[in-house]
């Protein structure tokens, strides 16, 4: 693919119907698209997809339920039930599309925002919340779902994924590995090292970058001089940019990349060009560094709305389908709320355990100081 200038974070509005999905503007590189923001189906010469009506409805259901769960988690954090939450609002298509491209024996290495991919891998949404409540370090067995634990350290999971993929290749397995990271993580040395090892060892790994255009408060153009997918060329493997708000394109491109990896053709980089509609996490205030007009523009590209428009226009979903899905969404939200509120409060002293095998005087001192500090709140309440 070719580029006319460096990456920009303000894609233009879509225009009239197109017969080709290879789209480019004066300040944007090409990207793979199969469903326009207006809900029009288009074709691409390299990536084709012919989903059945059932598959389309299933992906729509995945995105709706993932968004509802994500919204409930944000609300629970605001109510004091979770310590933190990283919302995926606006990135549902990138995650559901790529997640549904996986085979059962493929392995996923996520960051901390891949709630939609976790859904696709069969991880109970409630299990995702234990870590954010502070009651566990990840509430699922990675090997049960081939979905690794969430990784908070930025970019490190790409190295884990590459090492695992190298092992897969040595074992002679025909499975692939999918590693997720964000545009901010692309600036980390771990990602560069992962690219190097993956290329040299021809590892069966696909790197999936969700470029939501903001590494907390830092825009992408302050991190790179070229579109992120072009970095793959310097390491000797292909890269492609896909419309990250187009679930069909994300599915088609990721399926092709994973199949390429499984058949011994090595790594590939996918840049899903999307947008983080909300805050980086619930401790962030995006209004301090983003304009409202920017979000308003991206609301016209909403991944759920465009698929609903397409299905409705094609007669692939009726009012009963959407009504039933709304009921299912409400039931999921209630189960999440009830389950989280039934979780125990975090053990305040647990952070001092298992630091040293035989204990340490400094840790003992810190534990005593923290216990005294916690007790001061109880004394103050009793005094009132």
TrEMBL record:
Residue span(s) of domain Dehydrogenase E1 component: 61-333
Basic and acidic residues bias: start-end ranges: 38-47
Keyword Chaperone among UniProt keywords: no
Keyword flag Isomerase: no
Bias (Basic residues) ranges: 9-23
SUPFAM superfamilies associated with the record: Thiamin diphosphate-binding fold (THDP-binding) (SSF52518)
Cofactor: thiamine diphosphate
UniProt xrefs under CDD domains: TPP_E1_PDC_ADC_BCADC (cd02000)
Region (Disordered): 1-53
Database matches in InterPro entries: Alpha-ketoacid_DH_E1_comp (IPR050771), DH_E1 (IPR001017), PdhA/BkdA (IPR017596), THDP-binding (IPR029061)
Keywords annotated in UniProt: Oxidoreductase, Pyruvate, Thiamine pyrophosphate
Taxonomy, superkingdom: Bacteria
Entries under PANTHER family matching the protein: 2-OXOISOVALERATE DEHYDROGENASE SUBUNIT ALPHA, MITOCHONDRIAL
UniProt-recorded name of the protein: Pyruvate dehydrogenase (Acetyl-transferring) E1 component subunit alpha
UniProt organism field: Streptomyces milbemycinicus
